[in-house]
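To whoever is on call:

I kicked off a structure prediction for a single chain this morning and the downstream step that reads the tokens threw a length-mismatch warning. I double-checked the sequence; it's 287 residues and nothing unusual in it as far as I can see. Pasting both halves so you can look.
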Amino acid sequence: MASSSLNLLPAIFFTIVILSNLTLVISQIEKSHSICQVQDMKLKITHLEAILEQSIQSSELKFRNLREKEKMISEMANKIDLLHTILANIKVDTTYTEERISALEEEVRLLWAASRKNNFDIHVLESKAQRADGKIQAVTTKVQKMEGIVTEQWIQIQQLDQALIITERRILEAQRRATSSRCTYMKLIQGICGHYLPKYSGVLEHHLCSKDSVLHSCVSHVFNQWKKTTTAVRKHHHELQRIVKQGMEMNEVTASFAHQEVIFFVASALIVFPLWVAWMLLLSHYS
């Protein structure tokens, strides 16, 4: 009974070490994921800055076009004034025919139409410039927000780094304590299972077998079944621990006690107790 439960302690200790390493790997994965998010944020900021630069260049081009249009309007206004002067001179001079006057008036009308069209174009360009300014301000605000988010996440990453270092130190300290506290215990169990239990089992078998051949065959059969049962218990003890852990976590009262040591001893008790009862009944039957 004691050997079947105590021989499983190395497997439990190995499982605890594996879980500790998994915790470190998961923490490193979370750190790598946070760093990837910060890099993605920086790439987005670079992309937004490029868009901002293109918007600024487009606005400057539109402003230059607007100035050229204004210059053209000024030149057309001067030309209109000149035409008005010429028209006045023509009206004073009676030598010009009415056809020439009509042609000049048509030209003036076309110039006024072109001027109105230029005014409309200027208005459209001003509207586009205002919208471009709005977009530039929106992009600038977005870039500032992204910079704030990146700064905040960088602070969080630093905090996670510090927490990870503290956690690693605590895990190493717990592993050292667990190793130091279990070494003596494991030596004691190995000594009992490797020396005393086989010795007294052999004495008991020899004592019983010397009395009766029928009892000898029964005892031999019992010891063979005991060895097979011990092998099966060692094989399925880990699965039984998992079932015990699930059962304890489902109950609110036992959930707080569902740590590795308690689960191990409960699983061992579930296996050993029926075997111990059967062994006691067998001894009482043959005594």
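Update from on-call: the warning came from a stale cache, not from the record. Cleared it. Sanity check on the structure: The chain has two domains: 2-192, 211-287.
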